[in-house]
From TrEMBL, chain A:
It comes from Macrostomum lignano. PROSITE patterns: ETF_BETA. Keywords: Electron transport, Transport. This is Electron transfer flavoprotein subunit beta. GO terms for molecular function: electron transfer activity. Residues 228-247 are annotated as: Disordered.
Automatic annotation (TrEMBL), chain B:
GO terms for molecular function: (R)-2-hydroxyglutarate dehydrogenase activity; FAD binding. One of its GO terms (cellular component) is mitochondrion. PROSITE patterns: FAD_PCMH. Pfam families: FAD-oxidase_C, FAD_binding_4. Keywords: FAD, Flavoprotein, Oxidoreductase. Gene3D superfamilies: 3.30.465.10, 3.30.70.2190, 3.30.70.2740, Uridine Diphospho-n-acetylenolpyruvylglucosamine Reductase, domain 2, Vanillyl-alcohol Oxidase, Chain A, domain 4. This is D-2-hydroxyglutarate dehydrogenase, mitochondrial. It catalyses: (R)-malate + A = oxaloacetate + AH2. Its EC number is 1.1.99.39.
Length: 270, 518
């Protein structure tokens, strides 16, 4: 799949078309509980909201529109019927229209980044965005895979863990600052490209009332994995999900001798 | 500093913990006092007219007796440690208590009080010490009896919703325990991280959700207390209905520790709502606030769980003094309307309807937001819950808490603002609009007796003339006991004095508080 964009000066063009991925996850403030049968975590009746990194991605797309770098911003979510609420939040923040790829509940638990990236790749074929912005990882599975897989499927450049996105010096590419272990790395990528957002990219806005009302009227299209011709056969099987080990209480000692004695007991010193 | 959302988001994402409680009291390092050397002035200096009652002095024999009851570790005599028990949260009072006792059981409390009653030693019951009227600290050398060690949760019944706990349990911890059973505590206030349920009952604390869940007078099913003679009053029942005789616990609720020390309580907890939504609106007149409230009651009806208003001066304090950011532009008033219900779709629909009405109504809110996730929810609430904390940064705070007819609420703020123009840093008005309860605060860099003279008794007279209450929920404590007759008939006050004499013949239980000295 090759998509060629007019490489004219980005500032003069009518702006990039951006596709933003949003995932509905358990709200980060909720105390997650493991199901008694250890097959997963309790999601029934639990507060869900947009993945925080995706909020940041949505915010970036809206800001790029405001700066006239982008012309149209489309939000997409792969998930259950309730993902529509997540998309409404994106619309209320300033996204123009939304696409919901609805996954039936039976297949939801077994959905993996490989499936999501294939679905997104198919949508990219028809939507032809210039830039796809995804959250760097979802806070429920912490996979950090979808953006990278998508770029590989599309054979597009990728700029992950972005903390800044701006036009490059010659305005023909995007200059992305990435957060890496050693510090910050700045790279230029040509569009179309996949970028994943990191925490410091921006601070998401609150959805204002007028925008919340407008969001109800913005187009929200529904698609199914069958329509997109993507097979959702799981490649992995979750064997069990468990709580992390309970932290054992520490012990206070009265003197250095006691400390050394205890360390010896545990075989930590000879 | 800039308390940006991203900066607060990072540790939470990394640690996957609940966001820190919005309650200011748990996190706040005590603000620097206005007075010399960082300590507030002695209360006896501010109120030189109050004379020490005819109580005995502490002796070594008393100390031995107390040590025998609670053990040497829990008899605190060290001056530095005792000092913190002598200063109230607002740092406007400093007592001269020499001794703090920390009992673990009702029996210990009973033994202590019996001894004090026999010896005529004055005592002050103290829970979280978050009271705002100087009621929880000594004035002279009263002995502080702290309930902090009595912090066991005794039982929660998930079917009936009844929670039984010792008086020293911190409100927020009780709420967490209740949450694990799908329940919630029926009250919520900014001090939740530090206040204890015994103190909440003793002050009949109101808080943010009284509008929805009612007052502790309704939700407290039973309690156990130690009376000033040392006798244990066991009215601890978990029954929802029990009309057998006089309801004596109602005397203790709201008595501010002057009729006994509450040791256990049985509280009826409502079901924890599955869906909580929060709308935050910007309005430009107080009439718009009242109209919005009327709309909220009509369109949100049974799911409305809180309705708070904040004026522009309070918002300025929160922004300037604490660095919090407000997502809306500059407005004369802000409103927080919260809903709690059992069905998210249903509640969202109702909230959408309310918002549509609010936006189409002339002169109503044009600017506003709805919290999209728990982080936004907590941040928006912090703009209201941390106002008290932000005002303390100015220096010295004069705090008033009154009930008034709704239409008069902001008239009082405007009137006092004009009266104190140029003499104070700010006049802030905010509060539980749904309950007709205004919190009115003034700040100066240091305590200024002339400012106090301009405020009192004028503000209380203004309230009395409109048949309001001079203390809606904070109680009388030390600071307002002289004004009780502004809101209660003289005969009623005399009946109260009779009850006090009956239960506390030697007057040892939290003297100088609530009732005026006769």
């Amino acid at each position: 799949y090759i998509h060629i964009i007019n490489k004219a000066d980005m500032a003069a063009s009518k702006g990039l078309k951006i596709l933003v991925g949003c995932k509905r996850v358990i709200d980060y403030a909720v105390k997650v509980r493991v199901k008694p049968d250890r097959s997963g975590v309790v999601t029934e009746g639990v507060k869900h909201s947009m993945n925080p990194f995706d909020e940041i991605a949505v915010e970036e797309a809206v800001r790029m529109k405001e700066k006239k770098l982008a012309g149209e911003a489309v939000a997409i979510s792969v998930g259950p019927p309730q993902s529509q609420e997540t998309l409404r939040t994106a619309l209320a923040m300033g996204i123009d229209r939304a696409i919901h790829v609805e996954i039936p509940l039976a297949q939801l638990e077994k959905l993996q980044p490989i499936h999501v990236s294939k679905l997104l790749a198919k949508v990219c074929e028809s939507e032809k965005p210039d830039l796809v912005i995804l959250g760097k990882q979802a806070i429920d599975d912490d996979c950090n895979q979808t953006g990278q897989m998508l770029a590989a499927l599309l054979d597009w450049p990728q700029a992950t863990f972005a903390s800044k996105i701006e036009p490059s010096q010659d305005s023909k590419q995007l200059r992305v600052t990435r957060e890496v272990d050693g510090g910050l790395e700045t790279i230029d990528v040509s569009v179309p490209a996949v970028v994943t957002s990191d925490l410091r990219l921006n601070e998401p806005r609150y959805a204002t009332l007028p925008n919340i009302m407008k969001a109800k009227k913005k187009p929200l299209a529904k698609m199914s994995p069958d329509q997109l011709g993507v097979d959702l056969q799981p490649r992995q099987e979750v064997i069990s999900v468990e709580d992390p080990p309970v932290r054992k209480a520490g012990a206070k000692v009265e003197s250095v001798e006691d400390l050394v004695g205890k360390l010896r007991e545990k075989g930590l010193v000879k | 500093f800039q308390a940006s959302r991203a900066a607060s988001l990072l540790p939470q994402l990394l640690l996957r913990r609940r966001p820190a409680p919005a309650g200011a009291f748990a996190l706040l390092a005590r603000p620097a006092s206005s007075a010399s050397g960082g300590l507030p002035p002695l209360t006896t200096e501010i109120h030189p007219g109050i004379k020490r009652g005819a109580f005995s002095q502490l002796t070594d024999a008393d100390l031995s007796a107390f040590e025998a009851i609670v053990g040497g570790d829990h008899v605190i005599k060290d001056a530095d440690e005792v000092l913190s028990y002598n200063i109230d949260w607002l740092r406007i009072c400093r007592g001269q208590g020499q001794l703090v006792l920390r009992p673990k059981t009702t029996e210990e409390v009973s033994a202590i009080v019996r001894h004090c009653n026999k010896r005529r030693l004055a005592v002050v019951p103290q829970g979280g010490n978050t009271g705002l009227v100087g009621g929880s600290v000594p004035l002279f050398d009263e002995i502080v009896i702290s309930t902090s060690r009595m912090n066991s949760l005794l039982s929660i019944d998930p079917v009936s919703g009844v929670l039984v706990a010792e008086a020293g349990c911190v409100l927020e911890q009780l709420d967490r325990e209740a949450a694990s059973q799908g329940l919630m505590m029926p009250l919520d206030l900014g001090a939740k991280g530090s206040c204890q349920i015994g103190g909440n009952l003793a002050t009949n604390a109101g808080g943010l959700r009284l509008l929805r869940y009612g007052s502790l007078r309704g939700t407290t099913l039973g309690l156990e207390a130690v009376l000033p003679t040392g006798q244990v009053l066991d009215c601890l029942t978990t029954l929802r209905k029990d009309n057998t005789g006089y309801d004596i616990k109602q005397l203790l609720i709201g008595s501010e520790g002057t009729l006994g020390i509450i040791t256990k309580a049985a509280i009826l907890c409502p079901a924890r709502p599955k869906s909580v939504q929060l709308a935050f609106l910007g309005l430009d007149s107080f009439q718009a606030v009242l109209d919005t409230y009327r709309l909220a009651r009509r369109s949100l009806g049974e799911i409305l769980s809180a309705f708070e208003f904040i004026d522009s001066e309070s918002m300025r304090a929160v922004k300037q003094n604490l660095g919090l950011s407000c997502p809306l532009g500059e407005h004369s008033f802000y409103v927080l309307a919260e809903t709690s219900g059992s069905n998210e779709t249903h509640d969202r629909e109702k909230l959408d309807g309310f918002i549509e009405s609010v936006m189409s109504m002339d002169g109503c809110a044009t600017d506003g937001t709805v919290a999209q996730d728990a982080g936004q929810f907590a941040h928006l609430w912090s703009l209201r819950e941390r106002i008290v904390e932000s005002l303390l940064v100015d220096g010295y705070e004069y705090k008033y808490d009154v009930s008034l007819p709704l239409a008069d609420i902001y008239r009082l703020v405007e009137h006092m603002r004009t009266r104190l123009d140029g003499r104070v840093i700010r006049t802030a008005g905010y509060g539980h609009l749904g309950d007709g309860n205004l919190h009115l605060n003034f700040t100066t860099p240091k305590f200024d007796a002339k400012v106090l003279e301009l405020i009192e008794p004028h503000v209380f007279d203004w309230v009395r003339d409109r048949r309001g209450s001079v203390s809606a929920e904070h109680g009388l404590g030390l600071k307002k006991s002289q004004y009780i007759r502004h809101s209660k008939a003289d005969f009623a006050v005399r009946v109260m004095a009779e009850v006090k004499r009956l239960l506390d013949p030697n007057g040892i239980m939290n003297p100088y508080k609530v009732l005026p000295d006769e």
